[in-house]
DNA sequence: CGCTATATGTGACTGAGTCACATGTCCCCA
DNA sequence: TGGGGACATGTGACTCAGTCACATATAGCG
């Protein structure tokens, strides 16, 4: 690892790191674009809210929504206002008198499903060029890297906010991000 | 590849795709956070502008800035206004009377360097757990996947807007994203 | 010379998100 | 048992990035 005059670094290790950064940026851009379009939402947060609700957050309180999505409590209120205004979510009575349960309407659930399908389709198109062996290798490497990511991460939105939780739990055990995040955000077990 | 009742898909192929999506999302989140903090900018676009300017866009017109960053022309004007107000760029005379050249000040260049260093440090920490062989394998797989990404991508911001271009060009040839993007956005060759 | 395309800039607006603060509920502890 | 702090939600005022519609000015072709 030597520095060149600009202060940039070189070598295969850094080339890999740089490529990882580039790939992460585009994939996340495009994936988000696909999800937002499919869910017919204006903001990425709204789309993420729908997907999260559909997967493991349905019936959760506003408080949980704010933690998972990494916005302020008031931000969560506005967000749910928005979704409610569009008929995607309802505010039901919560587990106690202070809190309310945010629940998807059928319309909202449909939008979430569309979003998840769009995400899965986009991501599948990316791995389509890989052989079965390469897919396994990639999965292993991603697992290793993800462990490091999780170790560094201190706050912010939930790592798995757009994930397909059934896909990451099967067929080979659990995802490190899921485990780490679950306790941080106190997310309930997904109904099997 | 079979569908389960929810419409979600299963199998190792889809697990890998899902993991790729999850990894891309966090890495891009965290990387952006690191870059924005290091450049001391409020918005991610501003930080991306600084980094892009430093790498290959210095002296470019506002028009090019708008194309590379994927904002509207007026958005680019506001963006450059902001950076100028903070003493990070200057508007010099452009190649013709209509256009202006956006040029980094020393202060701006310093901020950009800080941002790039923060990005590199974060990404390196992620690959640190991998062996040299694993790094090579990962690099190869990322290259393959990136080719697919580039093929699907139709518009939006420049894929490499945060990249370290010297890292992706060496030591093994060029990055597919760089090649594809270069012609789309008409970005000038980076000064070697 | 006039016409259209191009580059930048401006005014009015939207929309997401924040902060500071208000209200209502919960629950522990004296 | 009731008082007080912690907690959940909600509201008002504001910020800030970004857009659209439009204005201005230059370029360059016929």
TrEMBL record, chains A, B:
The keyword DNA-binding applies. The lineage of its organism: Bacteria, Bacillati, Actinomycetota, Actinomycetes, Propionibacteriales. GO terms for molecular function: DNA binding; DNA-binding transcription factor activity. It comes from Nocardioides islandensis. Gene3D superfamilies: Winged helix-like DNA-binding domain superfamily/Winged helix DNA-binding domain. Keywords: DNA-binding. Signal peptide: none annotated. PANTHER family: MARR-FAMILY TRANSCRIPTIONAL REGULATOR (PTHR33164:SF57), TRANSCRIPTIONAL REGULATOR, MARR FAMILY (PTHR33164). One of its GO terms (biological process) is response to stress. This is Winged helix DNA-binding protein. Residues 13-147 form the HTH marR-type domain. It holds the Pfam family MarR_2. The keyword Magnesium does not apply.
